[in-house]
């Protein structure tokens, strides 16, 4: 009995029937390439985005400098939301990185599509589709709209004084609810920060909820901002903040009096220095001398200084002035 000859297209039908099973088996055995993204780069990208928004806001505020002062203050949340929307519209919505992400060589990747992507050819582990349209819209709603609504709600509740005990019970309950929601959000953000420091994924809750992960745009391109520049900027920022904190606490005249003996020698003063008044730097019309150092002053200058300061010191020699005397008169003050 001779076996029957298979049809000409039998092998094609068999291939099409077994192809899905072979692909699923191959995908189950293929492991996802682990990718480590620098946490510093991700934090720097977020900071650069904030700085970019502040620069745009500063330029926009300059347009209204000639208008009524304080006019933009009541619309500041709307202004911030408008700038954040512009950044989102011309970066994330059109599949481009934000300014900070571009400088740090980063882009958003949809982690939900990574498994399907690994069915194809994988080389570096950075492959993966970008964000889908629903993800982009929800990102705008959460980051731009959510921040604007919460800012407006906080300012409105503070203006209406919902937190006062003598307010209506409903307003008091709403204020308590807002505080609890804010506390829960901060606690969740803190836990997400710990998770980010451990895994290197999802800087904030919005990225975690949308499964939008930051990965490198190109595996062979370095960040555009060097660490040397960043370190220098951090040092100068901290130094300027320290000066802004300490300078108002210092007495400039006292510091000047302390440093004046080291600035110049008493014997090196010229004839012009001894003739002119050290306060107004002109030749005294009514010359008076300080006792006991015998340096010349204008009467009104030294009289005003002695009246305003109980322990006035000579500006030339830093000696305490105990009395003043008119030049050429032997009697006392």
Automatic annotation (TrEMBL):
<keyword id="KW-0808">Transferase</keyword>
<dbReference type="GO" id="GO:0005778">
    <property type="term" value="C:peroxisomal membrane"/>
</dbReference>
<dbReference type="InterPro" id="IPR017907">
    <property type="entry name" value="Znf_RING_CS"/>
</dbReference>
<protein>
    <recommendedName>
        <fullName>RING-type E3 ubiquitin transferase (cysteine targeting)</fullName>
        <ecNumber>2.3.2.36</ecNumber>
    </recommendedName>
</protein>
<dbReference type="InterPro" id="IPR018957">
    <property type="entry name" value="Znf_C3HC4_RING-type"/>
</dbReference>
<dbReference type="InterPro" id="IPR045859">
    <property type="entry name" value="RING-HC_PEX2"/>
</dbReference>
<keyword id="KW-0813">Transport</keyword>
<dbReference type="GO" id="GO:0061630">
    <property type="term" value="F:ubiquitin protein ligase activity"/>
</dbReference>
<keyword id="KW-0479">Metal-binding</keyword>
<dbReference type="InterPro" id="IPR006845">
    <property type="entry name" value="Pex_N"/>
</dbReference>
<dbReference type="Pfam" id="PF04757">
    <property type="entry name" value="Pex2_Pex12"/>
</dbReference>
<keyword id="KW-0472">Membrane</keyword>
<dbReference type="InterPro" id="IPR025654">
    <property type="entry name" value="PEX2/10"/>
</dbReference>
<feature type="domain" description="RING-type">
    <location>
        <begin position="277"/>
        <end position="318"/>
    </location>
</feature>
<keyword id="KW-0812">Transmembrane</keyword>
<keyword id="KW-0863">Zinc-finger</keyword>
<dbReference type="Pfam" id="PF00097">
    <property type="entry name" value="zf-C3HC4"/>
</dbReference>
<keyword id="KW-0576">Peroxisome</keyword>
<keyword id="KW-1133">Transmembrane helix</keyword>
<keyword id="KW-0653">Protein transport</keyword>
<keyword id="KW-0862">Zinc</keyword>
<comment type="pathway">
    <text>Protein modification; protein ubiquitination.</text>
</comment>
<dbReference type="GO" id="GO:0008270">
    <property type="term" value="F:zinc ion binding"/>
</dbReference>
<dbReference type="InterPro" id="IPR001841">
    <property type="entry name" value="Znf_RING"/>
</dbReference>
<keyword id="KW-0833">Ubl conjugation pathway</keyword>
<keyword id="KW-0962">Peroxisome biogenesis</keyword>
<comment type="similarity">
    <text>Belongs to the pex2/pex10/pex12 family.</text>
</comment>
<dbReference type="GO" id="GO:0016558">
    <property type="term" value="P:protein import into peroxisome matrix"/>
</dbReference>
